[in-house]
Amino acid sequence: MNGLWFKLHKLGVRGRLLRLVRDVYSKIRAKVRDCSSYIDFFECSVGLKQSEVLSPILFSLFFEDLEMYLFDNENSGLTLDKISFIIMLFADDMVFFGKDVTCMELQNSLDFVYDYCQTWGLTVNPDKSKKNFINVDLYSNQRSGYIIVYL
C-alpha cells in the first residue's frame, strides 16, 4: 500500500484527506462465506477493499502513470469506430492494446508492464496472462494486438 500512498501524495492528495483514506484502508479485515457458514475474520495486509466505493478510484489513480505512458506510446491503442482503446482496467485485471504491432512489440509491452508491476510491488500471474492478435481492418490486413494481464 505504500506505493499507493506515494502516488496519491504525488498527485496532490495530502493532509487530512490522505490520512482519512489511509485510515479506511488500514487494518482491513475480511470474512469468507463457505456455503451456509462463515470462517472467522482475518486481516488482509495487501490490496484494496472489495465493494468499497473508493477502491475503483484508487485503482485507477494507482495506474494513471502506466496509462499516461501507454497513451504517449505511438503503438498503443486500438481504434474502432473512432473510439480508441488503450487500456481497460477492471478489479485486478488489465487489458492493453497495441496497433499494427509485431509479436516482438507486443512482448516488449508485456515486459514493460511486468517491470512496472515489479517496481510497484504487484504480482503478475503469468499462467493466466495472455497476448493475442486480431485483424481490425480486413482490407489492409492491419493487425492489432492485445494483452490481458492478471494481477
Please describe what this structure looks like:
This protein is α+β, with helices and mostly antiparallel strands and 151 residues long. Strands 7-8-10-9 form a four-stranded antiparallel sheet. It is built from five helices and ten strands. 35% of the residues lie in helices and 29% in strands.
List the helices and strands and how they pair.
Blueprint: H1 2-10, H2 15-24, E1 28-30, E2 33-34, E3 37-38, E4 42-44, H3 55-62, H4 64-72, E5 78-80, E6 83-85, E7 87-90, E8 93-99, H5 103-119, E9 130-137, E10 142-150
Antiparallel strand pairs: 1-4, 2-3, 5-6, 7-8, 8-10, 9-10
Please give a handful of descriptors for the protein shown.
151 residues; alpha+beta; four-stranded antiparallel beta sheet; two-stranded antiparallel ribbon; 5 helices; 35% helix; globular
Give me the side-by-side strand order of the main sheet: 7-8-10-9
Helix content: 25-40%
* Beta-strand segment tally: 10
Largest sheet: 4 strands, antiparallel
Return the average pLDDT rounded to an integer. Answer: 78
Q: What is the H/E order?
A: HHEEEEHHEEEEHEE
Count the DSSP helices. Answer: 5
- As a percent range, the share of strand residues is 25-35%
What general outline do the C-alpha atoms trace? globular
Termini separation: 15 Å
Radius of gyration: 18 Å
Spans where pLDDT lies below 50 across 5 or more residues: none
- Helix/strand structural class: alpha+beta
